[in-house]
Amino acid sequence: MAPSENDTALQQDQGCTNTVSQQVCVEAVVTITPSVTPGLPTVSCVGLPIVGSSCADQGFTPSTTIPPSCTTTFAQVLCVNVPLTFNADVQATAGQVGCGPAFNAPNCPSACTHTIGFYQTHPEVVNALITAAGGSIILGIDSMGLSLTATTLNAEAILSVMAPIPPTPANPPFRGQYRALYAQLLAANLNILRGATCSFATETISEANTFLANSPPAGMAGAPDLTVALTAFNEGSAAGCPAQCLSQEPGCNCN
Known about the structure:
Elements: E1 112-113, H1 116-121, H2 123-132, E2 137-139, E3 148-150, H3 155-159, H4 172-194, H5 199-213, H6 223-234, E4 243-244
Parallel strand pairs: 1-4
Antiparallel strand pairs: 2-3
């Protein structure tokens, strides 16, 4: 039944976008038709008129055509550069819709977070997310201060609270605090990449990045507060943020 004018449209969050690809072969048939366009001829005299001498006397071959004319063939080799632009118009239409189980509480697979424990035991998920992000995730800002660039090579150590030294602080009392911050900050970035996000998470990640970028070589106080906030987000207990992904929940996305 068609909706009436009194129906209220339900608002929904942004869905997910995946990239698909297909190879196509495109042929270009190029036909080159040469042409010759004569320009405006110019006539000039070569020397003065010769008295008492014919053209044959001057070494010219008399014309045998009527009316008399001279025909000469000039050959010019052409090099034709043809730029070809191959492109394709893409039209996507919706296919069939598959209906899954329904729940009487929020349970969207993309709107849940994973803890560092999950990422520690699922390196294939971590590597796929880092690769999708361009191959690296900067914990901090560029190489400023004690910023650390996470890659598929060091992510396992970072999530295991064993970030390499440096850039962890030279001051031992701060070393463990920064390692814990790196771990929770990386996990938070991975959750954001999966689509689980909220304003609290993005603001806290920004604060943590600034803190690391401004940190002196020996480190400074303040890491634990940021670690606690990021942990709350990753464990699904931050107000207004997605809940934690639990494997025992029906339909939960734990990948």
